[in-house]
Structures are given as C-alpha cells and as structure tokens.
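Explain this fold:

***
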Amino acid sequence: MIKVHLSRLMGERRLKIADVERITNEHGNGLHRNGITKLYNEKTDGIKFDTLNALCKALDCSVEDIIEYIPDNNEENR
C-alpha cells in the first residue's frame, strides 16, 4: 500500500491547503486546491511527477517525505 504523508507534513509546518496552493503558485507550479485536498485526505488513486515535484519544492522536502510504500500483510508473508 502507498501511504501519503501530506497531512502530517502540512501539520508540522502549520500549513493549510490554501497556503500550499499559494506557495505552489508562487513557485510557478500551481497546484489546485481540489488536488491538494485529495492528497491531504488520501482520496486519490495516483499522483503525477509534476505534482510531487511542486510539493517537494513548496515544502522543501523529498519524495520519501510525502509518499511511502508499506507492504501489505500478504506481501510480507511471501
């Protein structure tokens, strides 16, 4: 399973979704509020590299800080 840590990162930095939208727009990689909200709530079925790039730039972090692979129980027992 893939875990999205955007809500944790934003919480640590005390950022709101509107803040992330504004910051990405300032950097020229503007993300829309709806897309950020879906990632924040882990209600997305995918993420584009451009989106990851914009988030990493805006939050000054790495991809590994935003998403993480966690093996399912079935995969651990193989």
The CA atoms of residues 27 and 58 lie 7 Å apart. The first helix runs from residue 6 to 12. The longest strand covers residues 2-4.
